[in-house]
Amino acid sequence: MKYYLIAGEASGDLHASNLMRSLSQLDREAAFRFFGGDLMEQEGGILVKHYREMAFMGLLPVVLHARTILRNLSICKSDIARYRPDAVILVDYPGFNLKIAKYVKQQLGIPVFYYISPKVWAWKEYRVQSFKKYVDEMLCILPFEVDFFKKHHYPVHYVGNPTVDAIAQRSHREETFSEFTAANGLDSKPIIALLSGSRKQEIRANMPAMLEAVKGFAGGYQFVVAGAPGIDPDFYKPYEQGFPQVTVLFGETYRILAQSEAALVTSGTATLETALLNVPQVVCYRTPLPRLTYLGFQYLLHTPFISLVNLISGREVVKELFAKLFTVYNIRRELQQLLHVQSYRRNMLASYRELQQTLGEPGASDRAAAVICTRLLS
């Protein structure tokens, strides 16, 4: 069968590539065409447009690149119509993908599958109605999403979480602390990991306060920054030069976390990765207009938490220091708890174990592929 996939950012490229591999195992005649990235291209098929030409985040970048976005939509629709796939598979990226879903369903009558549901439970809940109209099967990766969609009378599938798969399949699983430090030119002090975001604006916002917060721990710890993929190493140079105890490593996030005593982490998938690697953490996220943002979070969003760890657990497992709560003092105080209050560490690690049980076993892409193939063959 022929599959058309659309992933609009790096994480979508990763998860879509794994799904393509699983589909190929179930369907030996599988052929792929896609909007995506390098990882998808490695699985075979035709890359129509790279996500680098599509990844516009935030209101201003979207407005400034509106013409490009509209052109990409037009190219995508025309390409799907020419290719006539047996299925269109959308991966997150809701602003773009929902428009494609509507077109494909109304104009072409091709089955539409959505892998990794957009976070409509936090924002834009009205979009559920569009999913019900234009998406044949929703494949969710967060357990609580099943109950959310059930509330809207929309049956969905929980297929497991691909982050669980990524952690299980990671390299250097048996690596020791001394092996890691020797391989990366580090000393023997315990490590505090700094994950300050995946985009430049996030790093600029979060890194200075993170570094200021850890200064008081410099005597007994070393600090390792997980460099974000796609960010030029030179971008981190000012932070390294201004803080000699800091080392920036690229492509080693899981290895860094696995050897760390604690971590400062911006919100996002990184918080879940940190929990699955059993590292006590504090979530740090600076926002513009912090007091107004915090007020908006309390009254406009439909969720009590911002981190995946707390959302999945249904309670506060890790401290969320964002908006007006994001201060050097608060970060430093929480880090002190994580490093030196053993009962606090134990409680967090016990909650991580419950989280892991909730997420279930690896195999998300295999289960998603099975749903897709079963639906197409029924």
Mean pLDDT: 92
Q: Which regions contain 5 or more consecutive residues with pLDDT less than 50?
A: none
What profile does the largest beta sheet have?
Answer: 7 strands, parallel
Strand adjacency order, main sheet: 3-2-1-4-5-6-7
Number of domains: 2
Q: How big a fraction of the residues is strand? A: 15-25%
User: What is the terminal separation in angstroms?
Assistant: 14 Å
* Beta strands, count: 13
CATH topology of the largest domain: Rossmann fold
CATH class assignment of the largest domain: Alpha Beta
Brief digest:
The chain is α/β, with parallel strands linked by helices. The protein is built from 18 helices and 13 strands.
Which features would summarize this protein structure in a list?
Rossmann fold; alpha/beta; single chain; 2 domains; 378 residues; 49% helix; globular
What does this entry look like structurally?
It is a single chain. The protein has 18 helices and 13 strands. The chain has 378 residues and is of the alpha/beta class. The chain has 2 domains: 2-166 and 362-377, Rossmann fold (3-Layer(aba) Sandwich), CATH 3.40.50; 170-359, Glycogen Phosphorylase B (Rossmann fold). The strands form 2 sheets. Strands 3-2-1-4-5-6-7 form a 7-stranded parallel β-sheet, sandwiched between helices. Strands 10-9-8-11-12-13 form a 6-stranded parallel β-sheet, with helices on both faces. The relative contact order is 0.11. The model has no long low-confidence stretch (mean pLDDT 92).
